[in-house]
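Below: protein 1.
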Amino acid sequence: MVVGAGLGGLATAARLAAAGHAVTVLEQAEQVGGKLGRYERDGHVFDTGPSLVTMPQVYRDLFAATGARLEDQVDLVRLDPAVAYRFADGTRVDVPGTPGAVPDALEQALGNGSGAEWTALMARAEAMWRISEQPFLRTPLRGAATLARLARSPADVATIAPWQTLRGIGERQLSDVRLRMLLDRYATYSGSDPRRAPAVLATVPYAEQAFGSWYVRGGLHRLALAVGERATRAGAVLRTASRVRRVLVEGGRAAGVELDGGERLPADVVVSGVDASGLYGDLLPPDRRTRGPRRDLASATPSLSGVVLLLALRGRTPGLAHHTVFFPDDYDAEFDAVFGTGPLRGSPRPVPDPTVYVSAPDDPALRPDEDSESWFVLVNAPRHDPERGVDWDEPGLADRYAADLLAVLARRGLDVRARLRWCEVRTPADLGRATGSVGGSIYGSSSNGARAAFLRPANASPVPGLFLVGGSAHPGGGLPLVTLSAEIVAGLVGPA
């Protein structure tokens, strides 16, 4: 039994069904995909979650394990440039999709040895990757034992530098503040603050550049559909509009689930793809065995969330990259607002001058005609927390903030207000309701703090027969790690 048809749940179902298990997948929504969602209106089509595929080898492994070739199921397109950066001082940096060309592009845009500094940082990130990929990203989390494996070599510990933050390694190795901002952004890939996230997150830009940045023609939601098809072809049953009320525990182990309508579905194994906080807080009965995970989740900082604008636009924008990032003048002020730190300690709030991420695929499948565009616009935001933070359901807040964000884009040279057919606003509260993520925290727990990775819930729960998959569990958030979590869980369950 798999609860949740996000990418992690679908990938687990595909692997388990291919291994001979009888698998049923239960999804609360009307469609599969979870955060890898899709929205259509008036011929405009949007991915409502991730807009970039990295580490394609992870998906090749998944499809091969379920009897297919990735490239036969989805049309992957390498992005070049991978991303276009725009800084508050007017500097423009287009990062090439070809790894070897990145240092020259940085040097031409920023000068002062930026290309050589980035090369040196990526060399260290590659060493971090070699040390951590197998024992951490592809292996079940086993608390102190996992840490002990990583600590066997003093040289490896020095390379990983668990005492150092991503901001710290950037300040040590990158002299240009704009280049440090570019590095800091990768903390947000795990919903984190670069001032508190570990230096090992430098492996994220390394992996992105080493393995390429890719787009799925027709939208990334097609990746979820393709994985779902692999599951059903292997014999799995997908049931949408089926909300799970609780996980059944009988005889000391997971024994199935009960749906909202009271239907009870027995199972030898339950794999939960829902937010770990929701699983341990709402779906499981009180149990002394789950005190540890509940305590760790309470100790961890929840990940950031986001506000999304889906913009249906008339006309075309010349020279616009697939992905464009507009940085603010004060990046630290953004993280203070999102996490309620620094001068805003304990008072998170919508960011008045945020980094703005624009995904504008040049894909005919996503627009009603050639004289139109469909943009996904994202800004970092505090999660929905009416009691201690931001109440995103406050009347008028979403619309006011959407207007503010369009004005921010205009100030940064991309004014589309006169071209706007309509704008759909998605807040952290909306994300929480749609996907079950508590407060709309995109990645469950953040990577803030040296111990954050070891506070993340393990794939094997303390309740026998219950496993966790997806971005809120080990090894973390983001499409490739979610897919790796499915591989780990399938290995833990074993063949039928």
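Below: protein 2.
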Amino acid sequence: MIFVLLLLFGVTSSWATDYELLLEDPDIFSPCTEGPPGSINIHQAVNLDDIVVDQEGDILHVSGNATVVWDVQPTDRITARLDFFHFNRGNWEPTVFSMATQNFCSIMYDKNQYWYKYWTRFITNRHEVEKKCFRGPDTLLAHEPFDLRLKFENFRGPLLRGRHKIVVLFNALDERNIPRPNPICLEIRGEPLKLH
């Protein structure tokens, strides 16, 4: 009997599930609660004054331009990391979901990357951004209007319940691979709602 229950649990928990993310903060991006020392938030690194975001259900309508003001050097290598956390009994605990790249600039327009699927493919001045990436001040990120669905589709894994957050960290490393003192750290907090 126990074997049948375990088998049934294993089968049902492996089925793909769709989730909608209910945002906790209407501004979408929150400062990191436990960011690295010296880290700056997205509003300190990127001027978002010309970005317009309207939420309609599980869709964010995004349009406008952003200007990178992050103070790093044109020769720096940019690393990126995304981690998914679950809030449990007063603490943010890591989950098994994460992704990282040691050279974000080299993959930001790779069609197989999530960065591209959800964001960089909508940057219209690709040639300028590919050359500059986020290095050096005043890099313009010109976006065509796009819709971003707050959905995790075909999610395979344990059921998602309660508060979660996505933590994104960008680091700049100099020519000797020494990190600059001002990494960008941002969080997107919300609660995944299981869709039927």
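Helices lie at 2-14, 42-45, 104-107, 114-118, 126-132.
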